[in-house]
Design goal:
The protein is of the alpha+beta class and 400 residues long. The protein has eleven helices and twelve strands. The structure holds alpha-D-galactopyranose.
Length: 400
């Protein structure tokens, strides 16, 4: 995989040279992510446990004098030109909006940028719940940080990238995706407290135990803007308000209530709101237990908690769909699997499984083919490594 990354970096530098006539000064990488457990808890100030994966957005670029930006997308084979003094969405080239939005957010936060030339290339599947947009935003902020010597800490890169997604793109996402893309650590998942942003890297030790993180893309594309994501957020806020009234204390978020207290009060909530809150409150508890079980080497319990998380997302938070449920059911029934669940925002996208490496070869023929026959969709399988968060990469001279 490292060799693969190096060759992608080389190809991108070559493309930059063909496009702009000289080698790029910087190449940056920002990864996508898979969330192992802790879904829809981040915007409720709760806990999440994602890992950065070896699929990423790469940007090769060089700063220029002036205010003009020229950016070429390898994926779309399109060049976009714009001025840093006129940053608005470009409906003709939607792919460039994440770049424009992140630059606009950086400028609004008081950072001084100049023009630049860049080439982009990403291999995080889009619309699959693996955070291709967060990887893109974090890559832009990491590039600007290096090229204009802005000295922004990784945590602030994540916050600025999230702001770009919230305010420029218009998706009210939480902090998880940008945070893990900026601060992920190799061979580890990150326990993030989404209220304080304190975080702890936990070595998964999966490969030492003959286990792998296997992600399957259901082929059902999800769109957060058009989906019910924002309405789930509103339902959680409503639940917080009602639970605050019922408990007669100030709750800032669903983070402030534990499962025992919630169980006492849930009968007084409207049914749908009770279900949404039950998912969030129980999921926070599952994340903490999952981390404890991993630390004590109990991967069996970790897998069970993944399965329980899926049931909660399916039945209480209602963010799954027929195809993902089928994929998760088939995956869980495969003997080499310790646990499987929907990962990411939901309404399509991917399932993540913890699987014995010895079972991966037959997973495709024994599980994926059944899924494809029953749904008529084609599914992609990615066996992922947990990698470091965003970085300026070394350019190794050609022929070396
Ligand atoms: C999307 C959002 C995240 C998070 C997840 C659900 O990925 O971008 O902030 O809310 O959904 O856990």
């Amino acid at each position: 995989m490292i060799a693969d990354l190096q060759s992608r970096i080389q190809q991108l530098s070559t493309r930059f040279k063909e496009q702009f006539g000289s080698s790029p000064v910087y190449v940056v990488r920002a990864p996508g992510r898979v969330n192992l457990i802790g879904e829809h808890t981040d915007y409720n100030e709760g806990f999440v446990f994602p890992a950065a994966i070896d699929r990423e957005m790469l940007i090769a670029g060089t700063a220029c004098v002036g205010r003009e930006v020229e950016v070429f997308s390898e994926e779309y084979k399109t060049l976009d030109r714009f001025s840093l003094d006129d940053l608005h969405k470009n409906p003709a080239n939607p792919w460039v909006n994440y770049m424009r939005g992140t630059l606009s957010t950086l400028q609004n936060a008081g950072f001084h940028l100049s023009g630049f030339q860049a080439v982009l290339c990403g291999n995080v599947p889009q619309g699959a719940g693996l955070s291709s947009s967060a990887a893109y935003e974090v890559a832009v902020a990491t590039f600007a940080n290096a090229a204009f010597d802005l000295r922004i800490e990784p945590k602030d890169i994540a916050l600025l990238a999230q702001k770009a997604e919230n305010e420029f793109i218009g998706v009210q996402c939480g902090i998880m995706d940008q945070f893990i893309s900026a601060l992920g650590q190799a061979d580890s998942a990150l326990l993030i407290d989404c209220r304080s942003l304190e975080h702890k890297a936990v070595k998964t030790n999966f490969s030492k135990q003959g286990l792998s993180i296997v992600i399957t893309n259901s082929g059902v594309s999800r769109g957060l803007v058009d989906s019910e994501y924002n309405s789930r957020r509103r339902e959680c806020d409503q639940g917080t308000k009602l639970l605050g009234q019922l408990s007669r204390r100030k709750l800032n978020s669903l983070r402030d209530i534990d499962l025992d207290e919630f169980n006492d009060l849930q009968g007084k909530l409207p049914g749908r709101i009770a279900k949404r809150c039950r998912h969030v409150v129980s999921e926070n508890q599952r994340v903490k237990e999952a981390v404890r079980s991993l630390e004590s080497g109990d991967v069996t319990r970790f897998g069970q908690l993944m399965n329980e998380s899926h049931v909660s997302l399916r039945d209480d938070f209602e963010v799954s769909c027929r195809e993902i449920d089928l994929l998760v059911d088939l995956t869980q029934a495969y003997p080499h699997v310790l646990g499987a669940r929907l990962t990411g925002g939901g309404f399509g996208g991917c399932a993540v499984a913890l699987m014995r490496e010895s079972g991966i070869a037959d997973f495709r023929t024994r599980v994926i083919s059944q899924y494809e026959t029953q749904t008529g969709r084609s599914a992609q399988v990615y066996v992922c490594q947990a990698v470091d968060g965003a970085k300026v990469e070394q350019l190794i001279p050609l022929g070396f």
